C-alpha cells in the first residue's frame, strides 16, 4: 500500500510540474492534456486515473499552494511571517506566478485570505476603518508586493523582502487596525 501511495504521489507531482512548466511557457488555455502527459512522461490514460481534466489537476496544485500561502499570511508572529512568506514564494515561484497571472485565481486568493484575516484578527474598537476593508487591503498589498518582486526577477533576497513586507504592510496596518489574535 505504501509503495502504491508513493507512486500515486510521484505521478501527481510529475503531472503538476509539467502543467506548471507548460503554463509558464504558453499559457494555461493553450496547454493540452497530451502535452502534460508527454512532458511528465506519464501515459495518457494514466492521467485520467488521477484527474477528470486539466482543470482538476490545476485545482489540486493550487489548493495546496493556496492553503500554504494563506497559512503563511495568517502567521501571528509578524517577525517571522515576512521571511517565511518570501522564502516560500522564492522556492515555489513557478506555481506562484501561475496563481498570480490568472485573474480568477488571484481573486480567489484575495477573497479566501481576506475572509481568513477577518476571522483570525480582532479589530481595534476605536478604528474608523471597516474590518473587511482593512483585511482586503493587507491581503491585496501583500500580493501586490509579491507580484512586484516576481515581475522584477526577485532583485532583493527573501529575507530583505520579508523585512520590507513587515514594515510596509504588517506593522503599518496592525498598528492602527488589528489586534493580535488571542
From TrEMBL:
What single Pfam family name could you report for this chain, choosing any that match? Answer: TetR_N
Residues in domain HTH tetR-type?
A: 9-69
Q: Which PROSITE patterns match?
A: HTH_TETR_2 (PS50977)
Residue ranges forming the DNA-binding region read 32-51
Write down the superkingdom of origin: Bacteria
Which keywords belong to this entry? DNA-binding
Report the leader peptide range: none
Claim: Transport is one of the keywords in the record: no
- Keyword DNA damage listed? The answer is no
Q: Which GO terms describe its molecular function?
A: DNA binding
Name of the protein: TetR family transcriptional regulator
Taxonomic lineage per UniProt? Bacteria, Bacillati, Chloroflexota, Ktedonobacteria, Ktedonobacterales
Amino acid at each position: 500500500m505504501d509503495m502504491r501511495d508513493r507512486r500515486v504521489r510521484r505521478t501527481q507531482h510529475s503531472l503538476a510540474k509539467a502543467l506548471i512548466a507548460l503554463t509558464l511557457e504558453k499559457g494555461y488555455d493553450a496547454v493540452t492534456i497530451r502535452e502534460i502527459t508527454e512532458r511528465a512522461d506519464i501515459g495518457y490514460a494514466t492521467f485520467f486515473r488521477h484527474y477528470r481534466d486539466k482543470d482538476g489537476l490545476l485545482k489540486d496544485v493550487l489548493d495546496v499552494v493556496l492553503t500554504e500561502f494563506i497559512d503563511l499570511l495568517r502567521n501571528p508572529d509578524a517577525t517571522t511571517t515576512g521571511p517565511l512568506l518570501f522564502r516560500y514564494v522564492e522556492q515555489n515561484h513557478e506555481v506562484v506566478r501561475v496563481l498570480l497571472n490568472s485573474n480568477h485565481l488571484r481573486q480567489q486568493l484575495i477573497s479566501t485570505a481576506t475572509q481568513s484575516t477577518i476571522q483570525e484578527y480582532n479589530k481595534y474598537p476605536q478604528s474608523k476603518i471597516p474590518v473587511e476593508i482593512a483585511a482586503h487591503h493587507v491581503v491585496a498589498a501583500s500580493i501586490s508586493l509579491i507580484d512586484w518582486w516576481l515581475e522584477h526577477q526577485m532583485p532583493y533576497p527573501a529575507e530583505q523582502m520579508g523585512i520590507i513586507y513587515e514594515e510596509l504592510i504588517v506593522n503599518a496596518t496592525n498598528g492602527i487596525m488589528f489586534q493580535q489574535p488571542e
